[in-house]
Design a protein that fits this description.
By secondary structure, the protein is mainly beta. It has 1 helix and 6 strands; from the N terminus they run ββββββα. Strands 1-2-3-6-5-4 form a 6-stranded antiparallel β-barrel. It starts with a strand and ends in a 9-residue tail after the last helix.
């Protein structure tokens, strides 16, 4: 499943990219953007959970904010650049718990 993602480059506050993420885990994420971000770059990721996964009691909050470092880039094929980032910390206190709850809910299945 793809979901929307906003990437803010922490060393360049004016750089903000929109893309898609997939293969989300508790420790990191793979994502696609139009342009590559160099390996080792610290970024803030705003992962927008699908509206079908947001519980009624969460007041409609859909974005999970994460501080991460880009660790992998694949620009070998035409189209969006594929990258991966490893989470270093969650930006807000409840984001880790909300993301983990959605990952382990059984409502998401990775396609073979």
């Amino acid at each position: 499943m793809y979901t929307s993602l906003t990437v803010n480059v922490m060393s360049e506050p004016k750089i903000q990219c929109e893309g898609h993420c997939y293969d989300i885990s508790e420790g990191g994420v793979q994502f696609e953007l139009d342009d590559a971000i160099p390996r080792g770059t610290p970024v803030q990721l705003l992962i927008k959970l699908p509206s079908s996964l947001v519980d009624e009691d969460e007041c409609g909050e859909r974005a999970v904010a994460v501080i991460a470092n880009v660790v992998w880039i694949d620009s070998s094929e035409p189209g969006p650049v594929r990258m991966a980032a490893v989470f270093s910390r969650f930006a807000r206190a409840d984001d880790r718990e909300r993301l983990f709850r959605h990952i382990t809910s059984g409502r998401l299945v990775r396609a073979a």
